[in-house]
Predict the 3D structure of the following.
Amino acid sequence: MTDAGVPARGDRWPRAVGYGLLAEVLTVLTIIAIVMAYRFLFARGLSDADYAAFGMLTGKTIGTVGGTLFTFLLARLLMPRLTRHFVEHGLVVAVAAIAFSVGGSLAGHKGLPDGYLLASLLKLGAGALAGVLYSRSTSRNRNVV
C-alpha cells in the first residue's frame, strides 16, 4: 500500500525510453565538447582534414565507450524507481539508445559507420548489467530485516 501522494512504483517503460534518449544525447554532447575543445583549445591551426580525422576517431571511440557508459549509468539511475523487471527496463534503455543512435546516423551519415554493431552490443550488455546488479542488491536487501 502506498501513500496517496506517492505513486506506486512498478514499471516505468516510457521513462526507460526517455533515459535511452538521454544516454544518446549525452554521448553526442560529449563528442561535440571533445572535438570543440581539441579544435579551439588544444590544437589550433590544423587543417580541416586533420580536424575531420580527429572528429571521426573521437566519434567512433566516444560513441562506443561513452555510449556504453551513459547507457549503464542512466539505466542504473532508473532502477530505484522500479519494483520489478529490472533487466528488462535496462534493456529498454539500451534499445532506445541504439534506436536513436542508428536513426541519427542514418539521417546524418546516410549509413552506419563501422563499429555500430559493437557499440550496440555493448549498450545492450550495459543495460542488462545495470538491471542484474540492481536486482541482486535489491534481493539481498529484502532478506535483511
